[in-house]
Structures are given as structure tokens and as C-alpha cells.
Specification:
The chain is built from 17 helices and no strands. With about 375 residues, the chain is mostly helical. Helix 1 packs parallel to helix 9 and helix 3 packs antiparallel against helix 5.
């Protein structure tokens, strides 16, 4: 992990911790009115300023990307930045500007306007715990939007799916980086629900929907995992039937490159388990009870940028919905088991039977 990633991680962790402290007392209380410089008000103020800082970093990153594409830099300079000159088009420039403006504007409104946060409540559904007056929920929403904006900006400047595939082929997959990412997901989830700040360890586990795996969890999770595999396979076959072989190869290039670099059962097991545990604890355990099933599933789909703007997004959407329903009607534990089965079984099948990659769609 580089210095920049470490700084951002500490920044987000500190901001989430302060948001929890701001939520310990009511968002607007008589004590805060009587004592505007109370600890609660101070934590809230610092949290808002840090959120503005996070949005500013995203906007500056986006404007830097626009500047690179807008100016006719020499090919050598573009090569050093890992940018293909073919992506420098008016459409890509417009896309970058739109991403920066829309994401930045929405985040700014959420931070500065309680009325905007009240409108989010209508999107979260009746099953959500979203509180427009909670700083923790505000941090979660802005973080999700900034992550989506960051991934979209990277997607554009990488050159789309083909560019993402070429970058993976050139740089390879770093197993330790992927595991560290999973660890950070879990830490952010634990901080977000207030471990040792607003909740005890037992209350934290209950809030995240985590229990010791029971026979029921294992059976239901395993069945759901194979249902997701069957669903993904069926959708992949429809996809293959609707496009040319060349289009299919282009649309799955990034996913295929990732699959080609994972060639041992041990690696598959570690990555499958890491992704299942970390993504389910964060998305289904921490986020879903707050933002509801639809928004959480959209966040989950957006996170998988190797499938951006391809039919594979519909497959990930279907998988995300199954996992979300497992969380709602069973537990996060069942969702973790199902997610692990979905990741692990197809990858092992492809190692044993390479021809299955086309059938399973490398998903």
C-alpha cells in the first residue's frame, strides 16, 4: 500500500470515529444550543469539515484528470501516466466533467443541507434505519458517493474495460493489497456501527447480523450460493447469444484478465473468503440496514468496476439482490457463506476444466 492510500485510510477512519462521537448525543440538543462549543458540536463541526475535504480531494482528482486529457500532452508524458492517447476524446472529457460536477454537487448538498438528507430517506425504503440527523449515516453516504465517483474517473482515464484489462495485465494482481482492502472494509464497518464507542462487541455483532454459523445458515447459504451460480450462468448464456464473440470478449476482458491471474486453489480460497467476509460485513452488515436494499445493492454493483457499463452489471445486480435478501431474512453470516460459494466454486471449476470459463462467463 502506498503513502497516499495510507493517508486516505487514516483520514476516513478518523472521520468515521469523530462522526460516532458526534452521534453519541442527539444531533441538535438543548445542551448544544446552550453551549455551542460543547464536545458534541465540535465533533460535528470537524466531521463536516473533513467531509468537505474529502469531496474537495475527489473534485481536484477529477479536475486533474480533465486537465491531462484537455491539454495535448506529448505521447511520452501520457505513457508515463499510463494513459492511452486514444481515450482523449470530447466524449471522455464530457464524462469526466459530468462525474466531477454531479458527484461533487450531490455530496455538497448532503453535507450542507438537512433537507437534502431528508430526501434520501425516501430512497432508503421502509426497512431502513437511515437517520437524516446522524453524522455516521452522512459520512457513509458521502463516502459511498465519493468512492463511486473515484472509480468512474479511474474507469474513464484507464480507457474503459479494455484499458482496465490492460492495466491488470501489466501490473498484475497484488494478493496482499486485496487482502488489506478487505481488512479495511471490516475496520470501516466496525467503526461505522460504533464498536466500543456506541456499542459493545456483542451489540456490534448483532447490528452487523453476524452470528456463529449454524446448520441452517450453512445449508441456506450454500443453496443460495449455487442458485446465484446458476442464475449468473443463465444470464451469461443469454448475454453470449445477444452479442458477437468479439463484443463478448471485449466486455469481459477485465474479468477474464483477473481470472487468468488466479491460478491456484489456495489463492482462490483466500481471495474468495476475504471478499465474501469483507464485502458482506460492509455492504450487507453495516450499510444495508441504514440505506435499504435498493441503494445498497447499487453501491455494491458500482464497486465492481471491472464490469462497469457492460451486461455483467445485471449479473452482479442479481447476485447483490440475492445476498441482500439473505441478509434481510436470514443473517449476514448466511450471505457470507453464499458469497464465498459463488466466488470459490466457479473459479475452482475453471482451473479443473478451462472450457468452463466460457460457460460461466468468468464471473
Amino acid at each position: 500500500m502506498g503513502f497516499f492510500e495510507l493517508v486516505i485510510t487514516l483520514y476516513i477512519g478518523g472521520m468515521t470515529y469523530l462522526a460516532n462521537l458526534a452521534d453519541v448525543q442527539p444531533f441538535i440538543s438543548q445542551s448544544a444550543i446552550d453551549a455551542p462549543h460543547s464536545a458534541n458540536t465540535t465533533y460535528a463541526t470537524i466531521t463536516r469539515r473533513m467531509l468537505y475535504g474529502l469531496v474537495a480531494m475527489l473534485v481536484l482528482f477529477g479536475l486533474f484528470a480533465v486537465q491531462i486529457l484537455a491539454f495535448n500532452l506529448p505521447t511520452e508524458s501520457l505513457d508515463e501516466l499510463g494513459i492511452n492517447r486514444e481515450i482523449i476524446t470530447p466524449l471522455n472529457l464530457f464524462a469526466l466533467v459530468a462525474i466531477v460536477v454531479i458527484t461533487g454537487a450531490i455530496c455538497f448538498m448532503l453535507i450542507s443541507s438537512e433537507n437534502a438528507r431528508q430526501k434520501v430517506k425516501r430512497l432508503t425504503g421502509s426497512h431502513s434505519r437511515y437517520n437524516p440527523q446522524s453524522y455516521v449515516h452522512l459520512v457513509a453516504m458521502v463516502l459511498a458517493l465519493c468512492l463511486i465517483g473515484y472509480l468512474l474517473i479511474n474507469f474513464v482515464i484507464a480507457g474503459g474495460l479494455q484499458g482496465v484489462a490492460e492495466a491488470i495485465e501489466e501490473n498484475g494482481l497484488n494478493l496482499l493489497t486485496l487482502i488489506f482492502q478487505g481488512v479495511m472494509f471490516v475496520i470501516i464497518a466496525l467503526l461505522g456501527v460504533g464498536l466500543l464507542i456506541r456499542r459493545t462487541p456483542k451489540e456490534t455483532a448483532q447490528r452487523l447480523g453476524l452470528t456463529l454459523p449454524s446448520p441452517q445458515h450453512i445449508i441456506i447459504g450454500t443453496i443460495a450460493g449455487f442458485i446465484m451460480i446458476a442464475l449468473a450462468t443463465a444470464l451469461t448464456q443469454i448475454w453470449i447469444a445477444l452479442v458477437t464473440p468479439e463484443q463478448y470478449a471485449q466486455q469481459t476482458s477485465a474479468a477474464a484478465e483477473i481470472s487468468s491471474q488466479i491460478n491456484s486453489v489456495q489463492t482462490i480460497f483466500v481471495l474468495s473468503l476475504s471478499a465474501a467476509v469483507s464485502e458482506e460485513i460492509l455492504f450487507r452488515g453495516a450499510i444495508q440496514p441504514v440505506f435499504g436494499l435498493p441503494l445498497t445493492t447499487l453501491f455494491f454493483v458500482s464497486f465492481h468496476d471491472q464490469y462497469t457499463f457492460s451486461p455483467a452489471m445485471l449479473i452482479i445486480l442479481s447476485v447483490g439482490l440475492v445476498l441482500a435478501l439473505l441478509r434481510r431474512y436470514q443473517s449476514t453470516t448466511s450471505a457470507i457463506i453464499a458469497h464465498f460459494i459463488y466466488n470459490f466454486v466457479p473459479a475452482v471449476i475453471v482451473i479443473a476444466w478451462p472450457q468452463a470459463a466460457h460457460i460461466l462467463g468468468l464471473l
